Amino acid sequence: MQHFVPVPPDLRPWLMAGVVVDAPAELAQSHFPAMVSSMLVVRLAGQVQCRGQRVPPSAWISASTVATVYDHAGPVRAVGLVLQPEAAGALFAGARGQVNTLQPLADLVGPSWAAVEHTLHAAADDGARLDALCQFIRTMIAPPSACEARRQQALALLHAASPDATGAAPHMGLSQRQFERRFVAHWGMAPKQFAVIARLNSTLGHALAAQDRPVVELAADQGYYDQSHLGRDIRRLAGQPLQALVQGTASPLTPHWPLQVGAQTLADQPPLPTATAAPARSR
Q: Which residues are CB-neighbours of 53 under 8 A, at least 6 positions away?
């Protein structure tokens, strides 16, 4: 089945989780909520379609502003890495500003990806495949690579979009319009939209981690005005009411397995920096 794999400590600034997918034919779909993170996925068996288009065997799947359904054709096996939100644009120039899309890794990475893909398919097991993907990331970020500088620039954009103690955002010395243009050029979405989706991801993780917790308490802790505000965001960005999503993850064979992995990822993460924490209350 599908399960979460912790990432090596040295790659935590870049990666949130490793994922192994072993979906039987009975599992016909995978349902993902809107997400601020992106994924590198290498499919070893089976076929997957998204919005009627075939997903490449090795793909980068971008952040998304809408719930997304992936249709399976028969059993599907894959391994992947969930990237920290700021990592994709730092690692790959072609990833900056992209949302609701996917790209073949060969196009995003270039000719060097062929050797990585060969290593993955030749590996003895899924653990070795994830190790190979992690080593690929280490190669990308090794000095004299400029990846770390670009990652810090992305984090600076997030920090500049976060309100300070007065409720104002610093905006890096730019006007609000100039700053928003720069933010959208990098993230593919406006600062407010990023904050709303980041809050959704945090909320879903906390809801699954403590399923008996009153929803009104969850809403307050996550920065929503009230329970109705939380419910509207979840239906709009995850596709179903919160109760249905939580109940749907109770089975080991569920199309909502990404939420199960997301909850484990949240539990494994160190405290988020201010720039990526749950945003201030906004509708």
A: none
Range of the domain at 162: 148-276
260: CATH:
1.10.10.60
Cis upstream peptide for 270 (omega within 30°): no
pLDDT along the chain (283 residues), means of 10: 91 97 94 97 96 95 98 96 97 96 96 96 96 98 97 94 70 89 96 96 92 92 94 96 90 88 80 41 41
The number of domains in the chain is 2
Task: Output Rg (C-alpha) for the chain, integer angstroms.
Answer: 18
What's CA 155's distance to the chain center, in Å? 16
Does some domain include residue 167? yes
3-state secondary structure string, the chain?
CCEEECCCHHHCCCEEEEEEEEECCCCCEEEECCECCEEEEEEEEEEEEECCEECCCEEEECEECCCEEEEEEEEEEEEEEEECCCHHHHHCHHHCCCECCEEEHHHHHCCCHHHHHHHHHHCCCHHHHHHHHHHHHHHHHCCCCCHHHHHHHHHHHHHHHCCCCCCCCCHHHCCHHHHHHHHHHHHCCCHHHHHHHHHHHHHHHHHHHCCCCCHHHHHHHCCCCCHHHHHHHHHHHHCCCHHHHHHHCCCCCCCCHHHHHHHHHHHHCCCCCHHHCCCCCCC
Task: Give a yes or no: residue 281 inside a domain.
Answer: no
* Pair 72, 180 in one domain: no
User: Contact, 200 vs 245, CB < 8 A?
Assistant: no
